[in-house]
Amino acid sequence: MSILKITASDWEVLKIKLSRKYNHLTDDDLLYTPGEEDALVARLAKRLRRDKEYITFTLAKELSNLESNRL
Q1: Span between the terminal Cα atoms of the chain, in Å
Q2: Backbone phi, psi, residue 62, to 5°
Q3: Nearest Cα to 40, choosing from 23, 60, 20, 21?
Q4: In this structure, are residues 59 and 41 in contact, taking their beta carbons and an 8 Å threshold?
Q5: Which of 18, 20, 36, 64 is least buried, going by the fewest C-beta atoms within 10 A?
Q6: What InterPro entries does UniProt report for this protein, alphabetically (predicted)?
Q7: ∠57-59-62 over CA atoms, to 5°?
Q8: Contact, 54 vs 4, CB < 8 A?
C-alpha cells in the first residue's frame, strides 16, 4: 500500500515535471491511473534504476510544491 495519493489533476503537472527531469521516460513509463500509485512507483523505480523509497520521496517532494517550476 502506497503512502502517496495522486489525483488526476496533480498527475498532469507532476508528469510534465518528471518528463523534464528524466527526459528518457516514455509515455508508457508515465502512464498512471488514480489509485495505482504502487504500480507507478514500481515502474519508475525499474526504469530509473532507483529503489522504491527514492521514487516515493521524489514524487512526494514534487507533489508538495506543484506550483514551482523547479525540478
Answers
A1: 26
A2: -70, -35
A3: 60
A4: yes
A5: 64
A6: YjbJ_sf
A7: 105
A8: no
Letter for the amino acid at 52?
K
Each domain of the chain, given as residue ranges in start order, spans 8-69
Where do the H-state alpha helices sit in 1-71?
8-21, 37-48, 52-64
Per the CB < 8 A criterion, the answer to whether 64 and 58 are in contact is no
pTM across the whole model: 0.87
Residue tagged 508508457 (cell numbers): 28
Residue whose grid cell is 514551482: 68
Q: What is the pLDDT of residues 27-70, one digit of tens each?
A: 999 999 999 999 999 999 999 999 999 999 999 999 988 887 76
Report the CATH number of the 8-69 domain. Answer: 1.10.1470
